[in-house]
Amino acid sequence: MGEKMKERKTLWMRYVNFEKIKDLLHIVYKNNASLTAGELEKKGKEEEILLREDGKEMSHSPCYHYRKVMEGLGLVEVKEKCYRVSEKDKVRRLLQLTEIKKPMPEDAKEVLREIIVENEDCRKNFFDIFMKKNKYNLYELRTYGTYAMVKTKSMEESIESRNKRGRAKVRKKKRVGPIIIKNPTGKEIKLETQDSIHAIYWGVRLWSFELGLTDELMINFKEGRIIYPINTNFSENEITEEIIEKIKNDNTDNEWVSLYLPLLTKEIALKKRFAISQIKKFLHVLKRRYPTFITFTPSSTVFIDIKTPFERQDEVIRRLYLFKNGYFYSHLNIYKKFLKEVKL
C-alpha cells in the first residue's frame, strides 16, 4: 500500500477585491460548467477584470488566489475540472442583485457579509475571537460581539531599539510575525506563519474592514490596533449621553470642557461599537445644532509625535481625528450650559 498523501494545510483566504470576485462569478454563471481554471483566468483578463491597478494583467499567483477565494467561500464548485456556480440560495441571490462591471449595491454586500461570516474557515480563524459562543450569525456578531487587540513582537521593543536594529540590518529582509489577536477575556488567535498572516491578517481582516463588518482604531503604536464588529443600530442619543456624562464628571471651575477627540472616539467606539465614521459625522452634526456651545480645536501638526514604523498605520490613527478644510481637529470643546440646551 502506498504512502498516504499529506493533507494540504495552506489557508485559501487572501486579500481580494470583491467587485472582481463578483464579476468572475458572473463569468462562471454565463459559461456555467464549461470553463477550466486556465480558461476562467483567460476570460477574466479578456474582460479586463483580472487586471492590476496599473492596468496590466495579473500574474498567475493572484489569479489563483481569486479562484481559491471563490471556491473557499462556496460561491463556485469545481466538477470534472470545470467551474460552475453553487446552487446555494445566497449565491443565487448575490447573482440576482448584481451585474458584471457595475458596483455592488448595499443589499448585495449584505448577502456577501452573511456568506463570509457563515464560512467555517473565516469564523474559526477570525470572527470567533469576537464572540463568546461558537454558533452565531451576522446579526449576533453585530449585536453581541466584543473588541479584540492586535499585538506584535515589535510592540515589545522601544522605537529607539527598533531603529538601531533596523540600521544595523538594513540589508536583511525581516519576516513579519508573530501577530496575536486577543479579546478582553484572554481568548486569542496567534498568527505565526507567513501563510496565516497573509490569509487572516491581510486577508479576512481586510475583507471584513472594507465590507463594513468591522472597524479599526489605534490611539498610538504602543497600544496597538483595536478591531471590533460594527453595531449597525446607530444611536445619536447614546453618543450625546456619553458626552453629557463627560461634562457632568468634570469637577473644575472652567466654563468649558475640552475632550481629546481620539480618546473620546475610542471610548464611544469600544462601548457602543458604532462605526468611527458615524461617530465623527455626528459630532459635526452636533456642532451645527449647537454652534454657540460646541467648538473644535484645530491641530495640523497633531501627528508629529505618533508616527509609527509600519506603512499605512498613520491612516488608522488619523481616522480618530476630525478632518475638515485641511485641518485635523484634536479636541471637542463644550460649554457647560450645553446641558441645559440639549434635547434627547
Write up what this structure looks like.
Strand 10 and strand 11 form a beta hairpin. The protein is built from 14 helices and 11 strands. The strands form 3 sheets. The chain has a 5-stranded antiparallel sheet, sandwiched between helices. Strands 8, 9, 10 and 11 form a 4-stranded antiparallel sheet that branches. A two-stranded antiparallel sheet has the order 1-2. 43% of the residues lie in helices and 15% in strands. Helix 4 packs antiparallel against helix 5. By secondary structure, it is of the alpha+beta class. The longest helix is centred in the middle third of the chain and has 17 residues. It has 3 domains: 101 residues, Winged helix-like DNA-binding domain superfamily/Winged helix DNA-binding domain (Arc Repressor Mutant, subunit A), CATH 1.10.10.10; 103 residues, no CATH class; 106 residues. The termini are far apart.
Short description:
Helix content is 43%, strand content 15%. It folds into 3 domains: 101 residues, Winged helix-like DNA-binding domain superfamily/Winged helix DNA-binding domain (Arc Repressor Mutant, subunit A, Orthogonal Bundle), CATH 1.10.10; 103 residues, no CATH class; 106 residues.
List the helices and strands and how they pair.
Elements: H1 18-30, H2 37-46, H3 60-72, E1 76-79, E2 82-85, H4 89-97, H5 106-118, H6 120-125, H7 138-144, E3 148-152, H8 159-168, E4 179-182, E5 188-191, H9 194-210, E6 214-217, E7 225-229, H10 236-248, E8 256-260, H11 261-272, H12 276-289, E9 294-298, H13 313-318, E10 322-324, E11 327-335, H14 338-341
Helix pairs in contact: 4-5
